[in-house]
Specification:
Blueprint lengths: L25 E3 L21 E3 L1 E12 L9 E14 L11 E15 L4 E4 L5 E10 L24 E18 L6 E13 L10 E3 L3 E9 L10 E6 L2 E6 L9 E8 L6 H11 L9 H4 L1
Antiparallel strand pairs: 1-2, 1-10, 3-4, 3-13, 3-14, 4-5, 5-6, 5-7, 6-8, 7-8, 8-9, 9-11, 11-14, 12-13
Length: 295
């Protein structure tokens, strides 16, 4: 079945932002056959190979904190959602979002605590993140809905989509959530470095990942929540003793979460350097950044 369109989130909800300057160039090829991948196929015969070091994203998520706001003691939390690539840096003719789509489904789990009646801080110790990256041939093949009880990810792969790779957490810096202060709005933030493993059949001259293929992915998000306007916004509700933070975006663009993914083929940066970047991340707002403005 075809996917449904929308977005916003990542350990928690709304604006994914690059967390380091340790970017490296990778070569991607949408016209590759991906012959060795399960259900592998050409993502787009119209778009050839290109170089990039980062990508902008839209995304959506649902974070469930297993307590009411302000509860004492350790509290577990789980976030599920997806992010959808909307552009690759330096590659205006990549065709992504027009002739094909690339998206990831992810799950994050951890334990933290309410350090105030409205502020939740996750403990980086024991934090886990797993993600599966998919390629989806066809420009109209990706549709998304707000993650909810009926569909925790907000998206369901169809028969033409195939796995491009998997990612797991190498280092987690910080994960926060704040509710209020107005109405049911919420704000969140998260940064992490993921180790990425391309799927069989998707590397080298015949695959989407042309070179180099061992790399890590550096990502993070910071979101200043807003009250819903026309169905958009990052909001929370308390249901059955749980605090649920959701991105209520109904279409890509207006109100959707956004940010960057950075490709890094070097060694993972030292924890001290990453911590400084994480602190800077938390100061960012939800204003969308375009590659053209950053060039």
């Amino acid at each position: 079945m075809k996917l449904k369109r929308m977005v916003a989130g990542a350990f928690v909800a709304c604006s994914m932002v690059a967390t380091s300057a340790f970017a490296d160039i990778v070569t991607l090829n949408p016209s590759a056959m991906n012959a060795g991948a399960v259900n592998g196929s050409v993502l787009s015969a119209l778009n050839g190979a290109f170089n990039t070091d980062k990508a902008t994203t839209n995304f959506a998520s649902m974070l469930t904190i297993n307590s009411a706001p302000g509860a004492a003691g350790p509290v577990t939390a789980t976030e599920t959602g997806f992010f959808l690539v909307d552009a690759f840096a330096g590659a205006p003719a990549s065709g992504v979002g027009l002739n094909y789509n690339i998206y990831a489904l992810f799950t994050i789990t951890g334990t933290g605590g309410w350090v105030s009646p409205s502020f939740y801080l996750a403990n980086p110790v024991g934090l886990t993140l797993t993600a599966t990256l998919y390629g989806s041939p066809g420009g109209g093949s990706v549709f998304a809905s707000t993650p909810g009880a009926g569909n925790l990810f907000g998206i369901t792969p169809d028969a033409t989509d195939f796995v491009l790779g998997t990612a797991t957490l190498i280092q987690g810096l910080s994960a926060t959530a704040q509710i209020g202060p107005i109405g049911n709005q919420a704000s969140t933030g998260f940064s992490a470095i993921l180790g990425f493993t391309p799927a069989a059949g998707t590397t080298g001259p015949g695959g989407f990942w042309q070179a180099p293929f061992p790399f890590v992915v550096d990502l993070g998000n910071s979101a200043i929540g807003t009250a819903p306007v026309g169905g958009s916004g990052t909001t929370f509700q308390v249901v059955g003793g749980q605090t649920i933070i959701t991105a209520n975006v109904t279409s890509l663009g207006a109100g959707s979460g956004s940010g960057n993914i950075i490709f890094d083929t070097n060694e993972v940066p030292e924890p001290g350097s990453l911590a400084l970047v994480g602190l800077a991340l938390l100061g960012l707002g939800a204003t969308r950044r375009h590659f053209g403005a950053k060039a």
